[in-house]
Amino acid sequence: MKINVVGGGPGSIEFMTAAGISKIKSADVVLTSLRLNDEFSDLNANIKIMGIMGTIDFLKENSDKCDLKASVLASGDVGFYSIATTLRKHLDDFEIELIPGISSFQLFASKLNMGYEDWKLISLHGLDRSIVPYASYFNKTFALTGGKWDVPAIINDLVRVGLGDVKIYIGERLGMQGEKITADTPKSLVGKTFDKLSVILIENENFVNPYKIFKDEDYIRGKAPMTKEHVRNLSVDALAVSPSDIVWDVGAGSGGVTCALALKAHESTVYAVEMKKDALDVLNANVKKLKTHNVEIISGRAPDALVDLPTPTKVFIGGTTGSLEQILDLVLTKNPNATIVANAITLETIGLIIDTFKNKNLKTEIISATIAKSKKLGNYNLMMGENPIYIVKGEKDEEI
């Protein structure tokens, strides 16, 4: 059985392609959502209104009707967060043809008289992820809104983290009756309401390049110790953070490793847990100074402060105050496949970390680093050694 998945565009026949209209007109049955039905009902007399899983069930139940010409009418474009992706996963035995439509970001760009080649394209519709990381590390971020993350929620989140002065463009009911476009700053739009069928573009001229490397002199220094630059880079590299990883920094101190991790996890969030007030003050100051807005600072003592945090994929342990085993138990309960990195300076601490990792059946990798930096003395350069550091990486042992 062959299925045509047709992109209906923004919601008006005016913006639908001729190829798409032809497929809908010639279909024996058209499966679509209620919102599209009102706009496209004149194209075909046999339109069935149903959700994604209902559509899949209907097609499976009629899979033996080889001559049945079925079309699925999708909103927007079939290649941009579309029902087509779900259909391909559940109907791998079917022949599926995709007929593209005009996407919301294409139409929005034309309304704003912009190109979109430099836009970061995401969807927040029905997902539990913030736009803040993208707005922090990309010049222009376009998002489909919906569910928890409607436009007012996005505006409040941007203001909360200090991005209240960026420029945002909001497109309501694009291509439909009642279309409206607003351009302003988040802090000017707090408290205002917007249509549920909205898209948003955030333009941040002061975005941070996520591929930069922070130097020691970039940070604000306080009384709390800070992991030095070269050790910090080795530790972050050992954790191998991907952009979408959820990261915990336990015992974050003044934020040296925290902010470096935030760059790596630039499409997600780093949860920095610290219990000492003097360290928390400097940690907050560094997050603001370095504009790593995707850091959520948690004041409290581990492991209790970790209980309600989202499940981590990567965990850095900078300090445990004697609770290493309990912290590991919590991490591995939430995610047995989490990668964990811990640093140690003393021989006693390195022994404790290795023994505890082994007791938790973690495969360990140990790096011993001794760093020396040059210091100018007259016409000469002297190498000044720093304290040696041990970096221990633990991961699930697949052989056990």
Describe the structure.
This protein is 30% helix and 26% strand. With 400 residues, it is of the alpha/beta class. The protein has a seven-stranded mixed beta sheet with strand order 13-12-11-14-15-19-16, with helices on both faces. A five-stranded parallel beta sheet has the order 3-2-4-1-5, sandwiched between helices. The two termini are 46 Å apart.
Helicity range of the residues? Answer: 25-40%
C-alpha termini separation: 46 Å
Q: Please give the order of strands in the largest beta sheet.
A: 13-12-11-14-15-19-16
* Helix/strand/pairing category: alpha/beta
* Average residue pLDDT: 92
Any idea what the radius of gyration is? 26 Å
Number of helical segments with 4 or more residues: 13
Strand content: 25-35%
Characterize the main sheet: 7 strands, mixed
How many E strands? 19
Which runs of at least 5 residues are low in confidence (pLDDT < 50)? none
- Overall 3D form: elongated
What features would you highlight for this structure?
400 residues, alpha/beta, elongated, single chain, five-stranded parallel β-sheet, seven-stranded mixed β-sheet
